[in-house]
Amino acid sequence: MNLEPTYQHFGENGVLINWSSKIDSLINDEVLNMDRLISKTFESRIIELVPSYQSLAVYLKEGESASNFIQLLKELPVSETIESQNTKRLLTIPVCYDLQYALDIEALALANKITVKKVIELHTRETYKVYFLGFLPGFPYLGGLNKSLSTPRKSTPRQNIEKGSVAIGGGQTGVYTVDSPGGWNVIGKSPIDFFSTESRFRCLLKAGDLVRFHSISTKTYKRIKTEVVAGTFKVEKEAYYD
Amino acid sequence: MIEVVSGGLYTSMQDLGRYGYRRYGVPLSGAMDSYSARLANQLIGNFEGEAVMEITHIGPVLRFKNSTEIAITGAGFVPTLNDVEVSLNTRTYVPKDGILKFGLPGYGLRAYLSVLGGFNSEKKLGSYSQYFGITKKETIEKGDSFVLKPHKGKPHTATASFKVSKNHFSSNSIDVFAGPEFRLVSKSIQKKILETELTIGSESNRMAYILKGWNGVSAQEIITAPVQPGTVQLTPSGQCLVLMRDAQTTGGYARILQLTESSINSISQKRAGTVLHFKLIDYPS
Questions:
Q1: Residues of A with CB below 8 A from B231's CB?
Q2: Rounded to whole angstroms, how far apart are CA atoms B82 and B282?
Q3: What is the pTM of this model?
Q4: Mutation site for A-interface testing, chosen from B16, B18, B22, B23 by largest number of A Cβ within 10 Å
């Protein structure tokens, strides 16, 4: 697989770095490595970086020349770009798949010709990778959905999907981190906070994280919710080695 | 303190944007016409990134509980202070209990109001820009009030004023760079994109402008990738979206063109129904 990126201008103060046009965890690892390398090497020249599946946007400070920056990127030692971070975080996200929260789980099970129990089993069995955040504040683009759960988006999007809702849209699964209109099929709800600016900035997930969903009862959902409000709930995080 | 007597059509607090949080999916936001917003602060002697009130099409009515100085830039409103006309692009003294009205603009769409010292508005993630889910309020409404920050400058001394080129409002030629997917569409589609006159749709807002007029032009979806204000997206059904300041940080439509910063400011002043065309320019080598 060719992991050599290409570089192009992206607006007056932007540079876009592109890898092969496919959704692939190894390619995304390269994006995230380059993301770390650039923010470390060129801290004084950049405002921020936005990684995605196979592409990385670098937004430069006013007055920086994008052409010069592209040249600098091309001269980066190759050995540094392949320096990889092999320790990842694995987060366990509690999800209540009870029908009162799982608005579309019965329809989704029916469409995929499996039982609701099987939907939950397949959804909680996989380990998902957070490729990047986008669409909504804190929203994770997760890779790794079991193909038997792949379900087209709803033809009429809902006006509002409550934050914490766990959903499936096409071949992707994700969590609505803030209230939002949306067309994904809701299969459960997590009581934890994924994104907040209330007292301070908190964003639970970051690109490169690994995520597992853990099925909880309505009773546990309510207990965790109380703990989240009280600020005493801690999401289970562990180091994960590739 | 300033009290909002009436909020107008769509009035919000903005600065030059919420930088540093786009990797978390937080939109950049900020003044649609950053040129006029900067000018409003410069005229008053404020830091250029102070909060300004962005006023859209139908202006608000404001009551000043303290005397201060203001500057109004951008669209051609004919604002009045205690029923006396106020000039644009200059500093104006406002007495205690002054009532400022905006009415409707004769040209352009968005005006910017700065006050001496700046508005002490809610600041979240390093920015005053109001955005749903980030700040408590997403627009300025009747009943809102804003405390003014203390200022260090001497009030009412300078008579700075500035002549803004009418071109900023009237030019219908929008400078664009080729977008990441421009070379991936056929030459005939590229030609059509650059030669067709486009009309601004009425659904246009701070998130995106919708342009109409491309026929028989479309592009396949891409793997979701970064977008920014000024990115022109072409959808599989042939819709043309110009992403504006409140746009998402990533998107899945082909990024066919990219507006210059100055073009974003210029298009921000154009109303629904305005006809424009794109003019391709090269990136500096």
A1: 11
A2: 49
A3: 0.93
A4: B23
Residues of chain B with C-beta less than 8 angstroms from the C-beta of A207: 23
Q: Does A57 touch chain B (CB under 8 A)?
A: yes
Specify the fold of B2-146: Jelly Rolls (2.60.120)
Which residues lie below 8 Å from residue B104, measured CB to CB, with a gap of 6+? B57, B58, B59, B77
Closest residue in B to A70 (Cα) is B285
- List, as ranges, residues 233-262 from B with C-beta within 8 Å of A: 248-250, 258, 260-261
What domains sit in chain A, N to C, each tagged with a CATH number?
Answer: 6-81 (3.30.1360.40), 87-241 (2.40.100.10)
B282 touches chain A (CB under 8 A): no
Whether chain B has a CB inside 8 Å of the CB on A65: the answer is yes
**pLDDT beneath 70, residues of chain B:** 153-159
Residue A80: per-residue pLDDT:
54
Q: What is the CATH architecture assignment of B171-280?
A: Beta Barrel (2.40)
User: What would the pLDDT profile of A118-139 be if each residue is shown by its tens digit?
Assistant: 999 999 999 999 999 998 999 9
Q: For chain B, say whether A133 makes contact (Cβ under 8 Å).
A: yes
Q: At what angle do helices B261-268 and B34-44 cross, to 10 degrees?
A: 90
End-to-end CA distance of chain A: 19
> What pLDDT is stored for residue B163 in this prediction?
87
Asked if the model's pLDDT at residue A81 lies above 70, the reply is no
ipTM: 0.94
Around Cβ B274, how many Cβ atoms within 10 Å? 16
Whole-angstrom Cα distance, residue A5 to residue A33?
12
The predicted-structure confidence for A45-80, as pLDDT tens digits, reads as follows 999 999 999 999 999 999 999 999 999 999 987 655
The minimal CB distance from B25 to the residues A14, A55, A138 is found for A138
Assigned token pair, B184: 């991936």
Domain residue limits, chain B: 2-146, 171-280
Tens of pLDDT along B240-255?
Answer: 999 999 999 999 999 9
